[in-house]
Fold these 3 entries.
Entry 1:
Amino acid sequence: MDDPFAVAMLAYESQTVVALRLVKLAWGGPAAQAEASQMISEKISASMEAAGSLMLGGSHDAVIARYRELVAENTKRLMSP
């Protein structure tokens, strides 16, 4: 891995999504159920995308950059009213 800063930022940014999701899940109800289901689907999709990328010769840095994009999308979605 050429960019340890990107790894550290991914870890930091992911904590925001974890916190936002925990709040949403704690409120319960249909929104929490939908979030839990979406979270599982996203994790499966992201791991398959990462595995495919690496199997085709993609770099670890590219996978980390893609995960950061996905985390940013989730942060934006979870913070919107």
Note: The helical segments are 4-27, 29-55, 60-79.
Entry 2:
Amino acid sequence: MKTLIPALLAAAIGTAAQAQDFYLGGSADYHFPHSGDAQTVGSLIAGLGIVADRFAVGAEIEAGLKIAGDNEYDTSRARGWASYDWYGYSFRVAGGVTEYYFDDSTSGGYNLGVGAERDFSPNMRLRGEIIRDFMDNSFTAAVTTSRIAVLYSF
């Protein structure tokens, strides 16, 4: 899994010239484990998408650093997503791989998410999302993340 995220990053960067939407942004994430202590993470997000009428598909990567809380881990995710525009909102589903980086170990798994976005300027949008990480060898079996993100489209 350690080589999967850099490989997906290279593939995403290599295809960015063909995408209709390239975006960067940041988010505040609240991680709530199935068992254990919660933590707040700040994440940087980069993604690309191809839009066809009301539908869009794409991929994104993210890296998160602990801001506050009782746990000590950083995060990274690589996800594919699909969305549908409806009455000014873009509703999305996503899924991919997750890694948590502890001081002495790494834990991996997969993630699923649902959310919505809304443009508040021609190049800026606000996203709200719920992401569930299913971990295979971690301190907990699953972690639910609540996210508020601001994204800038190029």
Note: Residues 4-14 form the longest helix (11 residues).
Entry 3:
Amino acid sequence: MNKLYNEHIKKEFLKLYEETSQHAIERVFNKSYSAEKLLRKDLYDFNENEIGIVLSELEPHSVDVAKSLGFYIKSYISWAMPYRKSNLNPLDIATDSYFERFVDKSKKIHWAEDELIEQLEKLPNGQDKALVMLIFNGILGEEAIELIDLNYFDIDWSSNEIYIASRKEKLKVSDACIKYLKEAHRQQNYYSLSDDNKEFPLVETDYIFKNIYGKKSQDSKQVTSGVIYGRLSRIKDYLSLDYLTTNSIKQSGMIKYAVDLWSNRGKLGKEEFNLIGDRFNLNKIHANGYEYHNKTLMKKYINEENIKKLYGIDVQIS
């Protein structure tokens, strides 16, 4: 069972954030519990080295993830400054090199399409297979709204095109994605991913993702973002894939889309990166009357090395 040290204080801090962020922050607090108990003090009183113990336990797979986790800890310390013995926040001066020390480079965080499908075939629920494959194909949205709103009648089953209501546009998805969507739509019972293997009846609805009867949300025809992210967390545990997250799945899909563009166009430059950004609904940079996607940020994972490793082809990125 997950525990929080000084639970009442941490729960007050969690109230400041939306549900999705709460899950991420609570994971940090769950990992910090052992160190807090051992050192007999709250995370808000930790120094730089003690914070490093927590970051190591969290096993971030990139500097950006380590910095994101550090940001949560830094924010918590700043918020709890009235309780802290020192009035200095040790992460105020932390550099990239500090966070790089805690990056776990041994874990797999990106998958080729066939690798991901091989993993998904182990799952008992079409609902879960479709969830992951839609994210891989670029359909997610803020707070998972594109998944929550997805309806049977939004899908052209013959052309593989899906109408995304929040974007007011259609996206063509893979055959595997359509296959899993059919499974998800037909599914009437949800199979537990825990050891008990129980079945739970699903609410009848035209929405692709369905609630389980007997839950608080049983009267709602639509799932919540909490249901989506909760299922993804259980999928990760069931498949024993530590880094199967929305970001890793999305980035894997972006790499695959880059490979498709390379195959069709013979190049991967600014125009192609903008197409990738549009497809996956990334935020744009606005400067001097222009708007464009952050190619430098995308190249951290859409690069020659990853494409060679996942798809065995040599590309040149300009």
Note: Residues 113-239 form one domain.
